[in-house]
Amino acid sequence: MTQRVRDWLLLYILAVLVNGVIAILVGTPGYMDAYYYFNGARFIAEGQGLFEPYLWNYVGAPPALPTPAFAYWQPFPSMLAAVGILLFGRTAAFGSAQAMYVLVAAILPVISYQVALQVGERRHGLLAGLLTVFSGYYVVRWSLPESFTPFALAGAGALAMAGLGLQRRGWWTWLLAGLCAGLAHLTRADGVLLVLIVGLIGLLCAFLGSSIAGEKSGVLRVQRIRPVLSIGIGYLIVMAPWFWRNLAAFGSLQAPGGLDALWLNDYNDLYTYPSNLSMEQFFDAGWQTILRVKWKVLLLNLGNFIGTQNLVFLTPLTLIGAWRRWREPWFLPAFLYSVALFAAMTFAFSLVGARGGYFHSGGALLPFIFTAAVLGLDDVLGWLARRRRWHLAQARRVFSVFVVLLAVFVTGYLVMVQVVGWPPTGKIAWNSSDAVYEEIGETLDKLGIPLSIRVMVNDPPGFYYYTGHGGVPLPNGGEAMLLSAARDYQTGFVIVDQDVVVDLISLYSDGPTTSHLELVETYGSENNPVYLYRVEP
Question: Torsion-angle region of residue 65: left (phi > 0), alpha (psi -120 to 50) or beta?
Fold first, then answer.
């Protein structure tokens, strides 16, 4: 067994152990995205087809339920989780899905090791791999049946293969780049950015590097189109079946919900019923509102770059390492993608970017960020050693250990705060965050309410996870809009908690003004009550 293979196994096993411990601590999906993807995985594993009994927003909303699945989000996270359920058992389906994700997510540190090894030495590879194992905010999410893990792997794979292709490694590298970019797009709609970046790199390679003296013109033309052709074939191998399904379900290659997010001036506009997102509505808000939103999102995404992607303390090292090397083949695709992603999630899809899009899709950059950081550390230490007369090799060993220990500490602290709920922050611990839904489900069972009766609630996928009742979300409007959506989707009950839009605050605080909502029961604490209403004709 070579040293490289031993390093791969070391990093992979360590990542499995770390992600496995987190998976044991995380007993529920915990938030809407994860509930949605996990429910989708169960539907696939149980042979129910690509349909779902709820909406999570009203963009492109169908006239009735159930509705074709994945009208807004992409399906691959659910497909991957479904494989886990089929492999490891349906009895503990969430644990089975987690097990699959734990095993797959552990590949990412190996990718980081390999990327760093190409531009540095073994020490750089091990350090980048260990930083990926202890990657802060991301560690909590690697084991969740959500889009973080598949997008990070597929995206990093696409960028790495494009970098390899720039070094003339043959048509197969471009085919793999296309396959990975296709998987990224099948995971998240913004994966199309990866397709564009990989395609651009293929074009640059073809048209800037194929003029070899003495080649015949026919051979030259083939050489020029081979990278782009291979990327396109790889991409379509993955995406063509999904495009066909979208045509059958929605009448278009693109599902109806995604691009409308361009026209958000407020994230809650996703929940306006009926949806009114349009270019006219966007510009009617006025340039003052538009620019204020963009500025706020710019600051938030800069904070995400510093905090979530670089664990704060790595930021200057990453910037130094990237600035000195961004033109190198292994870094150029990742650099272009990082710029495109930041621009798209800040100035185009601003509000979805700030609410998690940039965080999700930034996972594909981690192997390159951590590689840039460890190289930047060497740059800084080399500069200091020349001025402080340090022993450079010893300084590198000491600071490398310090950086890894700091990453371990930050990661451990974030796990304790986000999952375990210690130290107390006033936020409900992960596994208890939606326990009230289970209580409400028990009430509905006692009342003899069949599962076919729908419920309006802030998190319909989460409510379905606990109760089996489908439904629709609370709208971005007052009681009249609420009752209109409840009537159109034949909703029998409404759940109102403190997380309501401005127009529904009076309903939460003072009760309904209409006789069409009858209070059934109150849950939670006196300071944070949750109300269950029956919708009367």
Answer: beta
Q: Output the tens digit of pLDDT for each of the chain's 537 residues.
A: 799 999 999 999 999 999 999 999 999 999 999 999 999 999 999 998 899 999 999 998 999 999 999 999 999 999 999 999 999 998 999 999 999 999 999 999 999 999 999 999 999 999 999 999 999 999 999 999 999 999 999 999 999 999 999 887 788 999 999 999 999 999 999 999 999 999 999 988 877 654 433 344 444 455 678 889 999 999 999 999 999 999 999 999 888 777 788 999 999 999 999 999 999 999 999 999 999 999 999 999 999 999 999 999 999 999 999 999 999 999 999 999 999 999 999 999 999 999 999 999 999 999 999 999 999 999 999 998 888 778 888 999 999 999 999 999 999 999 999 998 877 766 667 888 889 999 999 999 999 999 999 999 999 999 999 999 999 999 999 999 999 999 999 999 999 999 999 999 999 999 999 999 999 999 988 888 999 999 998
CA distance 359 to 346: 12
| Structure tokens belonging to residue 407 | 């990453």
- Only one residue has tokens 């604490």, namely 525
What are the C-alpha distances in Å from 402 to residues 213, 231, 377, 398? 51, 41, 11, 6
Please tell me the number of Cα atoms within 13 Å of 189 on its side-chain side.
20
Residues in the chain: 537
